[in-house]
Amino acid sequence: MSEIDDIIESGMVFRGASKPKSDDGKVKTKAKKKKYITGAHGSGSAKQKAKYRQQRANRHK
Description:
The protein has helices at 2-10, 34-38, 44-59. By secondary structure, the protein is mainly α. It has a domain at 26-60. The radius of gyration is 25 Å and the shape is rod-shaped. The relative contact order is 0.08. Residues 15-61 are annotated as: Disordered.
């Protein structure tokens, strides 16, 4: 019972997860890879998205 009383009086300390791994610069999603962004890998949706990205980039020049 004393453990419960201690917890009630002083609270509990929850330890967080281990430290996050350092960023190696690795790309973890296809959407960030250059071939996907430029639409070079042949997917129709990737080509369409690349077209929209290019239009948006040209809009602010």
